[in-house]
Amino acid sequence: MSVHSEVLGLDLRLIAGELRFYNPRTGKKLLNYKETEQARQQAEQAQLNAIPRLLEMGLSIEQVATALSLPVEEVRQNLTT
What we know:
- The protein has 81 residues and is α+β, with helices and mostly antiparallel strands.
- Helices cover 51% and strands 19% of the residues.
- The chain has three helices and three strands, in the order βββααα.
């Protein structure tokens, strides 16, 4: 069972004792803070893991930085760690 909030524009459902928010158009659950933080950390780690692979493919540090939307200095720092 869900309740729609006109103010939020979301459906609210009580799942296993936890109030969760859902997009009423797609029916998909919105991530809570913990899930969002985990996804952010995983994406950040994947981005850092891509640096050596892109360099091995022959891209320059500047090209890697551009491809990953990172500052050149951050790419360089991650080469030494």
